[in-house]
Structure of ATP synthase complex subunit 8:
Amino acid sequence: MPQLNPAPWFSIMVMTWLTLALLIQPKLLTFTHNKPPIKKTITTTKPTPWAWPWT
């Protein structure tokens, strides 16, 4: 069963992880948004009670 033999898959996993950590992640972290996020104030509204037709 090839699933139980980690020899071919462990090296692929390590190389993929290193590629992601060392090459792709720094490029993604330098990405800047066109519109930076703004802090919104939370407004709470009082819910109106439901008018049941049979009451």
Notes: The first helix runs from residue 7 to 29. DSSP finds one helix and no strands in the chain. The chain has a mean pLDDT of 82.
